What does this fold into?
Amino acid sequence: MADSSFDIVSKVDRQEADNALNQARKEIEQRYDFKGVGASIAWSGEKIVIVANSAERANAVLDVFQSKLIKRGISLKSLESGEPTASGKEFRIESTLKEGISSENAKKIGKIIRDEGPKSVKSQIQGDELRVQSKSRDDLQEVIALLKNSDLDLDLQFINYR
It folds into this structure.
């Protein structure tokens, strides 16, 4: 019998992220507590830039954006935000969406699978994703459950299950 396998990836649906950003921008334009504070949120290349006239307002804009990401099904683990920094009379927060599994995180995931997973399961790193193989599909299901319950600082998706 052939081996069953699946891939572990960390990707963000760009269209959903863009929709969340547009929803947050519309809400900020409409809300009374954001009137006259120069609050805005926009893409700047690959980064998301949040601007407001105070650190509290910038954090409030970030909070609105995070709630829109959650509603769109994007995990906050894939959003990396800095602290508000003063830039003239305004405060800025730069955020990025993390994609791909770094080699150190891939090694960490591989170690979890080796140490706590079923013995018949093999994992190998392929660029910014991991391939997990086993003869038993039940063992693969066990690995998925194990990784979902582990405390990793990544948003993982399990694709190409065959």
